[in-house]
Design brief:
single chain; mainly alpha; about 45% helix
């Protein structure tokens, strides 16, 4: 480790720095992700209810709601 590459900062500053440098895993690159980007786009455009989609994809109904509102998977752009 080169100490010249290190700097003091809070966790919030560290997360911001990581995001700005493109080093933060998002979407399906995130290790805990249960969905693929194509599935998220399907959810956003689906006419099914949140409950129906929740059962279909095996995720919480609240997660469906957040995807549809654009609170999650923001890197894909605006919710449909």
């Amino acid at each position: 480790v080169n100490p010249l590459h290190l700097f003091v900062g809070t966790q919030v500053e560290n997360l911001r720095d990581m995001t700005e440098k493109g080093r933060r895993a998002v979407g399906e690159k995130f290790v805990c992700s249960k969905l693929k980007e194509a599935q998220v786009l399907e959810i956003r455009s689906s006419k099914l209810t949140d409950t129906e989609l929740s059962k279909h994809y095996g995720i919480a109904r609240g997660a469906i709601w957040h995807i549809r509102k654009g609170n999650r998977w923001k890197h894909l752009g605006d919710a449909a």
